[in-house]
From TrEMBL:
Residues given in the record as glycerol binding sites: 127, 174, 254, 270
InterPro entries: G1P_dehydrogenase_arc, G1PDH, Glycerol_DH
GO BP terms in the entry: glycerophospholipid metabolic process; phospholipid biosynthetic process
Role played: Catalyzes the NAD(P)H-dependent reduction of dihydroxyacetonephosphate (DHAP or glycerone phosphate) to glycerol 1-phosphate (G1P). The G1P thus generated is used as the glycerophosphate backbone of phospholipids in the cellular membranes of Archaea.
Gene name for this UniProt entry: egsA
UniProt GO molecular function: glycerol-1-phosphate dehydrogenase (NAD+) activity; glycerol-1-phosphate dehydrogenase (NADP+) activity; metal ion binding
Superkingdom of source: Archaea
Subcellular compartments: Cytoplasm
Major location (coarse): cytoplasm
Catalytic activity: sn-glycerol 1-phosphate + NAD(+) = dihydroxyacetone phosphate + NADH + H(+); sn-glycerol 1-phosphate + NADP(+) = dihydroxyacetone phosphate + NADPH + H(+)
Family under the similarity heading: Belongs to the glycerol-1-phosphate dehydrogenase family.
Name of the protein: Glycerol-1-phosphate dehydrogenase [NAD(P)+]
Amino acid sequence: MNELKSNKWMQLPRDVLVGSDMLGKVADVCSDLKLGHNALIVTGQKTRDIAGMKVAEELEETGRNVQIHVSGSASMEEVENVMEIAREMNTDFLLGVGSGKSIDVAKLAATRHNVPFLSIPTAASHDGIVSSRASITHNGETTSIQASAPMAVIADTEVIAKAPFRLLAAGCGDIISNCTAVLDWELAHRLQNVTFSEYSAALASMTANILIESADSIKPELESSVRIVVKALVSSGVAMSIAGSSRPASGSEHMFSHALNRIAPNPALHGEQCGVGTILMMYLHGGDWREIRDGLRMIGAPTTAHEMGIEDKYILQALVESHKIRPERYTILGTGITPDAAEVVARTTGVIS
Ligand SMILES: NC(=O)C1=CN([C@@H]2O[C@H](COP(=O)(O)OP(=O)(O)OC[C@H]3O[C@@H](n4cnc5c(N)ncnc54)[C@H](OP(=O)(O)O)[C@@H]3O)[C@@H](O)[C@H]2O)C=CC1
Ligand SMILES: O=C(CO)COP(=O)(O)O
Ligand SMILES: [Zn+2]
């Protein structure tokens, strides 16, 4: 399916597998989806050994021709490299096995090469593992590009539970950010009559609220915790598919995170920054920002600049510049907040001290 069509069509994964030893089910999924002979795996340097090789072995056992490409970054050059390999081997489908970077590269290359794509995350660090968006860097700018949704998502909870807990906690931050994303979307609908989906917004909010209520169940190395987070990420991905945009899961808090990525010399993880952004933006919305902070704290996700390893001055600069990130997406930031106001929100919420 090409990009134009996927913008207008609601795309959802057909098979979603969440549980122990799911890497062993890859071949069954391929046969269920009637996928062809040639498979191209995009994986990362660490995740190649954690899951990439195992997936390749599973596919080779079915007699398939498999190639592995180890990708170092989510750049347009990498997408083009992967498309080149896909053309040369006449690949029938792609698999993104690993973290956000590998999944995004495989997702966009598959969309452009017009073949199916399977998402096999080794960490539950954000909802890109399920969604039809790909974040790709080109000429120093990272943009979120519409792509095809994965045909299947295979989340092996045993593998994900062994990933650094920081990644799972970041995934929780990305889910909790639906709280302010939906408030921003409602505001834009009221003020600018932007297209709004009640179903998508309700699903996104409910997903975030359930996660906040389950915050005390999210613990390191527990497959039960991984299941809760992966299911919530799937729900967020479905909400975005219903909306046909990232609106239900990306508002002012994501603009803050995108601004930090541009400004801070050493940004934190996407979900960590979005979680802290949610505290700040909930304050601006006049909502219960303490509930957001306490939920993140209970999970073990960062709630301050210090915990993210980011200097206070970058938080303030990002707050003042966030509204420029995506000017067409109206949020509580409106035409921007002043440096004084940024200082008040960041200090009052304890994000900076
Ligand atoms: N498509 C979308 O909608 C979205 C996309 N993104 C994008 O995703 C990327 C961020 O993804 P994120 O996953 O947070 O971070 P990264 O892709 O940067 O991955 C973080 C690190 O974790 C490692 N890792 C992954 N799984 C394991 C594991 N099981 N054990 C040990 N290490 C592991 C990775 O290894 P390795 O080196 O092998 O990859 C990598 O070094 C960014 O490029 C961002 O722009 C973010 C949000 C939404
Ligand atoms: O990260 C996302 C949703 O959680 C995707 O949103 P963006 O459209 O801001 O990249
Ligand atoms: Zn996100």
